[in-house]
TrEMBL record:
One of its GO terms (biological process) is Gram-negative-bacterium-type cell wall biogenesis. InterPro entries: Cell_Envelope_Assoc, DUF218, Rossmann-like_a/b/a_fold. The keyword Ubl conjugation does not apply. Residues 219-369 form the DUF218 domain. It comes from the Bacteria. Keywords: Membrane, Transmembrane, Transmembrane helix. It comes from Enterococcus saigonensis. One of its GO terms (cellular component) is plasma membrane. The chain crosses the membrane at residues 6-23, 32-51, 57-75, 82-102, 108-138, 150-169, 181-209, 379-399. This is Membrane protein. The keyword Ion transport does not apply.
């Protein structure tokens, strides 16, 4: 058997990854994992195309064409849920292509990737639901120990309790109910499955959105506000947002010699002694940002207002088009990107790191907010599912 294609793949893959690591270490935002994944994908594309051409096949054109569709959609507007749907479909298209490739070329690489995918799916099917519940309880305990016991910080706990009740119902109660009632209640797991699919698409596009690498040619950097400690002090969470903006600000000056204006956006809450934007500006000054490069927006109370009121200030200073990005915590930047488009800004975000223990709760909160943005659509789907099972339940009751 000829292993030359696999040997060449290994040489180019390892060599490229090493070169990527050396290259990205010199950058202020290395993001080594992302660029190594990109190089790996490029190597696999050439590998599969090459071995298929050697065997007289051209089927690789189909996943490549679909990849082009996804990339076109993504770079046209990164902040839309459609990208998550397209990406997940791309994964399935690539999976079917691997099955075809194995049958045609007997590629050990394709066989290995299929084996890993099968192992992952089997693990999810065997351990997924119970493991998810255990993880949610464990995460909830950590969040409640380290954060305030607000409703927003109890989302993983509430989800764990709900899934526990569903598990108990499914294993101990469902079999004891009459058929018509069992059929009616079967609408619940179907609706749950629908919202799980929506969450999966949301999570996929949120992860993809983390890999923004804006060019160092920006005119403005918007920093989205958050609550102040004791009503007047920048919190650690807010400080991370500001630090990301400051790092990009200094990086742009270093590589392009261009000063961006950092626009601190945040109004004054009922329990705050001064507007968030003013406190954020003072923090940035203490970090060495020139006062001339700082702007303050101090009227907003929501993310959408952050974007709208910031745009108003930028429009007064400079007519569009101007180049602008925004910073927030990593779990928040996708939804903020949606609001930026609603406000008429072509702006993408860069995210500040968030403690790992807080991410599940934070993403659940963002997911709920995303669902609320399209509540009519999700309500309609839920009603249609329920109506179907009501019909099936009635038919079962009268037929029996």
């Amino acid at each position: 058997m000829n292993f030359l294609p696999e040997i060449l793949l290994a040489i180019f893959l390892v060599g490229g990854i090493f070169a990527t690591i050396v290259w990205r270490k010199k950058k202020p935002d290395p993001d080594i994992v992302f660029f190594c994944l990109v190089w790996t994908c490029i190597c696999l594309i050439f590998y599969f195309a090459g071995i298929e051409l050697l065997n007289g096949g051209y089927f690789f054109i189909f996943p490549l064409a679909y990849l082009a569709i996804f990339l076109w959609s993504y770079f046209k507007n990164k902040a839309r849920l459609l990208n998550g749907v397209l990406f997940n479909i791309l994964i399935f298209v690539f999976g079917f292509y691997l099955i075809y490739n194995v049958s045609m070329t007997s590629s050990i690489v394709a066989f290995g990737l299929l084996g890993l995918a099968a192992l992952f799916l089997a693990s999810v099917l065997v351990f997924g639901f119970v493991s998810l519940i255990i993880f949610l309880y464990w995460n909830a305990l950590i969040v409640l120990k380290k954060e305030s016991r607000s409703l927003a910080n109890m989302l993983t706990l509430l989800l764990a309790i709900f899934l526990t009740f569903f598990l108990v119902y499914d294993h101990f109660i469902a079999q004891r109910l009459p058929d018509w009632l069992t059929i009616l209640l079967a609408a619940l797991p179907v609706i749950m499955g629908y919202f799980a699919l929506v969450f999966f698409n949301f999570l996929s596009v949120s992860i993809l959105y983390q890999f923004n690498h804006p060019k160092p040619n920006q005119d403005y950097i918007i920093v989205l506000g958050a609550g102040l400690l004791n009503g007047d002090t920048v919190s650690p969470l807010l400080a991370k947002r500001i630090d990301v903006a400051i790092n990009f600000y200094h990086h742009q000056i270093k590589v392009a010699g261009k000063h961006a204006k950092i626009l601190m956006s945040g109004g004054q809450g009922h329990d705050e002694k001064l507007p968030e934007g003013a406190a954020m500006a003072e923090y940035a000054k203490a970090k060495g940002v020139a006062a001339a490069d700082l702007l303050i927006e101090d009227q907003s109370t929501t993310t959408l207002e952050n974007m709208r009121f910031s745009k108003r200030i930028m429009d007064q200073l400079q007519p569009m088009p101007y180049k602008v990005i925004f910073t927030s915590n990593n779990y928040h930047i996708f939804r903020a990107g949606i609001y930026a488009r609603k406000a008429g800004l072509r702006a993408d975000g860069i995210g500040a790191k968030t403690a790992l223990y807080y991410l599940p709760n934070a993403f659940l909160r963002e997911y709920i907010a995303i669902v609320a943005l399209h509540k009519k659509r999700h309500l309609l789907v839920s009603i249609l599912i329920l109506a179907l099972f009501v019909f099936l339940s009635v038919m079962s009751f009268f037929i029996v």
